[in-house]
Amino acid sequence: MAKVSINLATGSIQKEDIIVGIDLGTTNSLVAFIDPDKNPKVINDTGKGVLVPSIVHFGSTGEIKVGNEAKDFLITDPQNTVFSVKRLLGRSYADVKNYQNFFSYKIIDDDSESLVKIKVGDKFYTPIELSGLILKELKERAEHALKTPVNRAVITVPAYFNDSQRQATRDAGKLAGLDVLRIVNEPTAASLAYGIGLNPEETKTVAVYDLGGGTFDVSILQIQNGIFEVLSTNGDTFLGGDDFDRAIADYWIEKNNIDKTELAQNRELTQQLRLKAEEAKKSFAHQSIFNQQIGEIWCTIDRNTFEDLILPKVQQTIDSCQNALKDAKLTIDQIDEVIMVGGSTRTALVKKMVSEFFGRPVHDAVNPDEVVALGAAIQADVLAGNRSDILLLDVTPLSLGIETMGGLMDTIIPRNSKIPTKAGRQYTTSKDGQVNMKIAVYQGERDLISENRKLAEFELKGIPSMPAGFPKVDINFILNADGILKIQAIELRSGVKQEVEVKPAYGINDDLVEQMLMDSITHAKDDVSARMLIEAKTEAEQIIYQVERFMEKNGTLLNAEEISETNIHVEALKVALSTGDKDLIHNKIDNLNNYTRPFAERVMDVAIATAMKGKSIE
Ligand code: ADP
Ligand code: MG
């Protein structure tokens, strides 16, 4: 790959344009930037506060509220209020079905490995769209506060996020009208906020302890030559400050002899207790006893009691730290720095136990709610080429990916990835008995391959004949330091393999790269809508295919009414398909799925149950 200057690689379309750093959190989100004095600063859009609760409410007349304004609706209108959407980002229903009870809104159960959707009223939303709404709110607040357009951002994700969750975060940014220059790990951003890793000469091993509202993770990072490597992560995605609040509320419920079954009916009181508990928890930062009332109910608790209540939870996080060290094959004395992240690390007991475990004082000078966003802003500044002190590595100027069903671009190596790099993903077939798979490789940022640059095409031949969705084809992209891209395709069950090499930089110049980046930003919204419609259509076509096949094979096991009812649902889906209305298509898919699922269970036919697995290729 040609050496590209960092400005080009980051798509410096408007040179003076600001780049923001965004912490898209499970509980709270926020945005930061580098002020004219070169200091990272969080954005507080007049009076609205710094933290934007990651909550979206859909009003009955179509208005959408994000943040604090949406929070109140958690009690009054829970079905239409979406929280914790980050937990669903890039996840399939199969991933989340075990904790569906956690959510008050409706997650579509299509029992498959395709990405989850959320139903609000009669509309279907993907977690990408919902996260996009939160990002859009942050973008607008930044624009309002800074009085300038904001089009480019660095967004953080947990270190343990997989490829699909990272891609989903990128897409959410795109939907919000943001050019996402890089997805950065939250612990990396936190280190940067403390200035750790900014000096390319230094080598350090850092533990980042992040206790938020509902999630906990600890990451061990090795920083060398300005490169951050995650050695290990550990944690619990259902442990956080909310558990502390619950512990206090439960304590009061017991002390006041409140009947639990009665309380379960009283949503409002439950919520009031929860909020009062959070207030008590936070008050222990400056007082040792909390004493208030909700009507007749005494809400009294002292700090020692609070600490006794939460001790087992905090101990659990310490056990995770132990495990993270073990996985990184390190001992405590090999950790150079410990960084505290997340609102819940303000609890004194947490700080004390973490500090004792690591045997050293922890870094807690930067506000733990803000530290990730501030670090993201620093990373943005580095990418903008504003910090000459930092080593800039060769990066890929354009994304590299392959064509999937419906002519969509599936990015495997995102642009701005450091090279050399390696990435891969698994695909499957779309038709029964499909023995060949066409693999077309593209370069570019657009969602439709027709708008991108084709680099290569080859055929993986000799896939054993199996039902659609059964073959497992690994496609790996290996981009070496000279910019040669090697594409490998392997069908895992049979071992058939095919490989080609291309040079993505061949025949492309800086102007063309810049033009391609520019186009991707101006078309971002239309592209994502087009992608979503194509994805809905592809899903519908696959399901119709599977159901029709199922009927052919197992029709005798269904009675006449079931057959005709299924046909009605299939016809309705076909009609919806012709309308090009994404929500209508999802609606009819949902109906057809709900109707036919019991048949599959009855006939014990795995084919239909495993239909729609992963992304498929024609
Ligand atoms: P996330 O990263 O999951 O979005 P945050 O880092 O914003 O979450 O943390 C939110 C949590 O921090 C909430 O549970 C909140 O009650 C807790 N929190 C905020 N301030 C304090 C405080 N002063 N003492 C204890 N906990 C706090
Ligand atoms: Mg966080």
From TrEMBL:
Alphabetized Pfam families for the sequence: HSP70
GO molecular function: ATP binding; ATP hydrolysis activity; ATP-dependent protein folding chaperone; unfolded protein binding
GO biological process: iron-sulfur cluster assembly
Keywords: ATP-binding, Chaperone, Nucleotide-binding
Classification via InterPro entries: ATPase_NBD (IPR043129), Heat_shock_70_CS (IPR018181), HSP70_C_sf (IPR029048), HSP70_peptide-bd_sf (IPR029047), Hsp_70_fam (IPR013126), ISC_FeS_clus_asmbl_HscA (IPR010236)
Family: Belongs to the heat shock protein 70 family.
Protein name (Swiss-Prot/TrEMBL): Fe-S protein assembly chaperone HscA
